[in-house]
Amino acid sequence: MKAFISVFPVKGMRMGCVLGVVLGGILTSHVNAQEYPADSLKLINLNEVIVISTAKQLDHQKQRKPLSTLDEFLESSRSIKMVKRGAYAWEPIMNDMASERLAITIDGMQIFGACTDKMDPITSYVDVSNLSEAQIGSGQQGAAFGNTIGGGINLKLDKSNFKSTGWTGSLESAFESNNAMRVFGGELNYSDKQFYLNTDAIYRKADNYSAGGDEEVQFSQFEKYNFSVNAGYKLAEDKSVAATLIYDEAKDVGYPALTMDVSLARAVIGSVSFNQDTLFGNLSNWESKLYYNTIKHTMDDTKRPDVPIHMDMPGWSETAGFYSQANFNSAQNHFLFKMDGFYNKSYAEMTMYPNNSNEPLMFMLTWPDVRTKDVGFYAEDHIQFKKASLKLSTRLAYHSNTVADDFGLNSLKIFYPEMQKTNTRFLKSFSVQYHDMWKDFHFNTGVSYGERAPSVSEGYGFYLFNSFDNHDYIGDPGLNTESSTDVNLSVTFKKPIFEIAATANYFHIYNYIIGVVDSSLSTMTIGAEGVKIYTNLAYAQLFNTSLSGRYNISNAFKWTGQISYHRGIDNDGENLPLISPVSYRSAIDFYKNQFSASLSVDGAGEQTNYNAAYGETKTAAYATLSASFGKRFFVNENDLFVKAGIENLLDTKYSSYTDWNNIPRMGRNFYLTISYSIN
Ligand SMILES: [Cu+2]
């Protein structure tokens, strides 16, 4: 699997260059991101907002692929890349950093996956059908959502919010040719000035997909349901209560890049909140929320041929939390104050069944019932000057981990006899961002400092097998807190019909946590090459830069594009794993008379800065071409929207640097989506 080499590396790169020039070379990100009014971004000062659906109208003409998975939506953003272990549940990466270094929340709620192998990122427990937007903050600008090094992503649920729309509903369906994915969804909403109710259901089922050249990728199927209900009630003109419930279940999910599949991944996510327009006269938009979520994850290898030893590996994660926040505005200052906290229980086990039934079963706790408590205070002040603005923010948090299971504690004590049951930390974050304008130029610059605690796997994982570098991993409860100093700079030149932006950031991460080989230990997993212990490196350095642009050729035609470069090295100058080579994206979008069309190219250069010690091989250059066509019809004042498209038009066989074990990506794929909304 690791030896997979793209069939057309040279051709792919050349095609990419040609198209890049044809389509304008340096173009930009997703249409959706730019359709969002810039003013509403100012206050939160997030780097990017991806609009997923706009308040219950089928505004699909702005999206190239309306019923795509949330993973595909996120991948279309400027700042996010996705690690793929198969067709389902991709893991977001931002500024070259994945889960442990990001704060990912759903409507402000902390949720933690239940898989020791990262098969279930938080983003896999919602669907585009119940979200309105993804708010993305790079580096410490994501600290409003939690302790982070790389940044934060908050997935906002779609709510009617007391708009007087009465009853509305829609039905949607999609089909994709490559993996025969069937999507059926529907929503029914009621909203008036006193009360709203949003309900939504979606079902997706896909067979194995085929890579370029019509080669079937075994174990890449999946099936998923998602239901959600949101309701709100106004107690008085300035007071309201709201409740949400999400039920998400994925079954029979194949992970072709891993050795195991998932028979069940289930989340139940619920919250109640109270909103009041003013508090003590000065504070406004006071919002308080209580939430609870529970996740069950069951790994399964019974469908795999030639399994040396059958394993059962279930995992559970339960989180309860709260937050309360309010704004305080004066003529010049816009404050946001937020108190938040959560309590998480992470538990995972593994039972091995020897082929000889006379041998005893082997049982291990891979996550020894780790209880994490976190209470934090976040504050920001956005100070407005005549043309410039300054944003100061800080997060201060108390964080503790306790190993609640004695069997698990004693297992870890084999390696760490001195370890304590409980480990507490005080985490700090500070950030200064400055924005200035000069003629049509916008300058943004900032410097930040942030800290994070090790994740449950990094601190307490017990023989977690990593199929990427073929090593068993053991956590270290005594790891130092990881901290990061980062600087960022961006310059944007903005005209109504033309825009070009250059951005760069640099992270200097102290006590960088990564697995390091300990040759004195022997492996547990059959076939593993060795054992790695999570260790603090003295430091690591990450550098990211991108150039993006937009050009409105005419009222109907728009041209966008982006090219980015990333570099990551440790304190010995060695390459860090999963760092993007030069990558680019470019598109032409057309929209006129309710008709839309797009042509886009996506590609990357050869990954020359890889590291074999982390299981990486050189990933070849590639480029893919996609097109879509849509038309909106009006039927008795209702909307009917039809969109069709082709992805990977030339059926290129390729994998990107984020594809786990270089699992090849999908080949040529036709899709058709039909949406009907009753207004
Ligand atoms: Cu798993």
Strand and helix map with partners:
Blueprint: H1 9-22, H2 31-35, H3 39-44, E1 48-51, H4 70-75, E2 80-83, E3 91-94, E4 102-106, E5 109-110, E6 131-138, E7 151-157, E8 166-176, E9 181-191, E10 195-206, E11 210-211, E12 215-216, E13 222-236, E14 239-253, E15 261-279, E16 283-300, E17 310-329, E18 333-353, E19 362-384, E20 389-403, H5 406-413, E21 422-438, E22 441-452, H6 456-460, E23 464-466, E24 471-474, E25 482-495, E26 498-517, E27 530-552, E28 557-570, E29 583-592, E30 595-604, E31 622-635, E32 638-647, E33 669-678
Parallel strand pairs: 4-7, 24-27
Antiparallel strand pairs: 1-6, 2-3, 4-5, 6-7, 8-9, 8-33, 9-10, 10-13, 11-12, 13-14, 14-15, 15-16, 16-17, 17-18, 18-19, 19-20, 20-21, 21-22, 22-25, 23-24, 25-26, 26-27, 27-28, 28-29, 29-30, 30-31, 31-32, 32-33
The structure holds copper (II) ion.
Tell me briefly what this model is.
This is TonB-dependent receptor. This protein is mainly beta and 679 residues long.
Would you write up a description of this structure?
The structure is a single chain. The chain is mainly beta and 679 residues long. It has a 22-stranded antiparallel beta barrel. A five-stranded mixed β-sheet has the order 1-6-7-4-5. Helices cover 6% and strands 56% of the residues. The protein is globular.
